[in-house]
Here is the input.
Amino acid sequence: MKRILKMIATIISLNKDPMPVAREQDVVPFRNRVKEYAVKIKMGLVNQTKLITAASELVRNMLRYGGGGEVLIEVVSRGRDSGIRLTFKDDGPGIPDISLALKDGYSTGKSLGLGLPGTKRLVNEFDIKSEVGKGTKVTIIKWANG
Amino acid sequence: MDRIPILRMGPFLLVTIQVDLYDRLALDLEADLVKMVSKTGAQGILIDISAVSIVDSFMGRIIGNIGVMAKLLDAETVVVGMQPAVAITLVELGLPLKGVFTALNVERGMDLLKSKIQLFEQDETDPENDSDDHITE
Here is the structure.
């Protein structure tokens, strides 16, 4: 039983596709790439839209606050589920207080402060790690049937 | 450089967004539309987003801003043709696009704009004349 549970919980990466995003013009091709993978694993249209919107929010954050970085696009599977995992990594200034950044309506920029909390609502799994002065890494997973 | 064309039709300005929006393009559209309203004295703006597959918080904000800015110049804004998946995503994101009128398609959007303008022209003579597909407040 333990072994089965462990198997279900293990997320296997099937395909890795790193993509640098350094300028605003890279955003549209990046979104299209994410969409291609989502279509490939037969993700429904609503989930596709949520995933791409979340990706768009995070990539904007990465450009605006982190000065650009790299996104790793992965097709992942866990048991019978397949999904897309996106890892956004930048070498920017980092976020001093993550819990504050995750609060609705909080922003240091000129935005509405919906980016991070909104993104969290759109995806199935959301993880953020940040170190001041070193950079930020955000990982999200959207399951095809999630 | 890319630009989204703005068409003039009588007292209205029509915008059909056919490409994937990135931030610069959306900001340019905002500025162009506001300038155009001021230049032409247009009373209504109709924005067709039926070909737009994603609207994130930034683009949502721009759309909302266009509505508010146009209002300051005495023009109404109607957003039409939103895809169902986009509507679901916007609400979950926490951005219900307050402040702009919406309609299901271009035809209903035009009717809504016309009724808005007539409403203002007739002043308080006909307060009942309300369309069924507007969202506000």
Remarks:
- Strands of chain A lie at 12-21, 69-78, 81-90, 125-131, 135-143.
